[in-house]
């Protein structure tokens, strides 16, 4: 049974935090027994990726070092520098990636986060939530994804040891 969920995220403009907060609110409705730990990547440690029963990684797409389609510097530092050898041990997980349609690699952060989960042995529960442009008028899309995530969590075997 999934009792705790850690959401590790980065935000520069507040857009990713808005999406994360919307997901948390929706999860409180669909799965009121789950305790959510919301944590910024810049203060996260590698072991924080596996401290809960489930994990969500959330990040906007950045042009880090003038290279388009990258993770934010804080998420990159966590995943590609400090947690390069972390084994996620089958933890149920999902990702949220934001982006801007003005760029060729729109919401590429979602793909990069998904790749990290896959390479590090997480159990990806559903396709990434990709939010393109301002998220404020996409609340229903975010809530629907959160409901799918909650449903996927509820279908996991009760004996899961994440």
Report on this model:
This protein is of the alpha/beta class and 162 residues long. The protein has helices at 15-30, 73-82, 108-119, 139-154, and strands at residues 4-9, 35-40, 54-60, 92-99, 123-124, 129-132. Helix 1 (15-30) packs across helix 4.
Give the oligomeric state. Answer: single chain
Measured distance between first and last alpha carbons: 10 Å
Quick one: how many beta strands? 6
Helix content: 25-40%
Q: Report the structural category.
A: alpha/beta
The CATH fourth-level homologous superfamily: Flavodoxin domain
CATH class: Alpha Beta
Number of separate structural domains: 1
CATH architecture field: 3-Layer(aba) Sandwich
How is this fold's topology laid out?
Layout: E1 4-9, H1 15-30, E2 35-40, E3 54-60, H2 73-82, E4 92-99, H3 108-119, E5 123-124, E6 129-132, H4 139-154
Parallel strand pairs: 1-2, 1-3, 3-4, 4-5, 4-6
Helix pairs in contact: 1-4
